[in-house]
Structures are given as structure tokens and as C-alpha cells.
Amino acid sequence: MEYIEVANVTEFTNQRIKTVTVLGNKVGIIKGLDSEFYAIEVGCKHQGADITRGHISGDIATCPRHGWKYNLVTGECLNQNTSKLRKYGLPYSITKCKKGGA
């Protein structure tokens, strides 16, 4: 599988979330509370608003438009019956670099 470089772990020293556009899709690169990295769709399933622009508390993001709440690690919507946000794979090198490797 090929990957597109969109972020470097050094960018997450003072921030936990970076939103990028990859092949027309808005994707959030998230540094979880467990210090692991995740890549997830950031468009709310309701009207497509960027959930990373709303309130973030721990690993929970609240959509700024209508208050739908999502778990940023699992993609699960916590207060509506809808499909999960799509998760994307990340290359091993992110984990390796994060832990102080080469």
C-alpha cells in the first residue's frame, strides 16, 4: 500500500489535531490521548461540517453545526444513529518515529 505524506510527528508537539485534504477528502490526523496516531474522516455525517472545528474534549469532537458527537479514535457517533466516520491507515513509520525510533 502506498501512502501520501501529509504530516510529520514533530508537528504534534503543541497540537493534537491537523486537518488535511487528501484526494479531495478532509482527513484529520489525530494524536490520541494514548499518544497513538489516527487518521479519520472529519466531515460530520449530518451535513459534512468539519468536526475538528467544533469543541474537542479528550477524544470526543462535537460538530459545530448541530452538536453531533464523535469519538475521534473509533469514528463512532455517540448521540445519533448513523454510520461511523471512515478511518484511514497510517504507515508504521509514524508509530516508530513517535516512540523515538529512526
Condensed summary:
The protein has 102 residues and is mainly β. The chain contains one helix and seven strands, in the order βββββββα.
Taking the alpha carbons of the first and last residues, their distance comes to: 21 Å
Radius of gyration: 13 Å
Please, how many helices?
A: 1
Number of domains: 1
CATH class: Mainly Beta
CATH topology: Rieske Iron-sulfur Protein
Q: What proportion of the residues is helical, as a percent range?
A: under 10%
Based on the coordinates given, report the CATH architecture.
3-layer Sandwich
Q: CATH superfamily name?
A: Rieske [2Fe-2S] iron-sulphur domain
Q: What global shape is seen?
A: globular
Q: Determine the structural class based on helices, strands and strand pairing.
A: mainly beta
What is the H/E order? EEEEEEEH
Structure commentary:
There is one protein chain. With 102 residues, the protein is mainly β. The chain has one domain: 3-layer Sandwich (Rieske Iron-sulfur Protein), CATH 2.102.10.10. 7% of the residues lie in helices and 28% in strands. It has one helix and seven strands, in the order βββββββα. It has one helix spanning 92-98; strands spanning 17-22, 25-31, 37-41, 55-57, 60-62, 69-71, 87-88. Strands 1-2-3-7 form a four-stranded antiparallel β-sheet, with no helix packed on it. A three-stranded antiparallel β-sheet has the order 4-5-6, with no helix packed on it. A hairpin with a 5-residue loop joins strand 2 and strand 3. The chain is globular, with a radius of gyration of 13 Å. It starts with 16 loop residues before the first strand and ends with a helix.
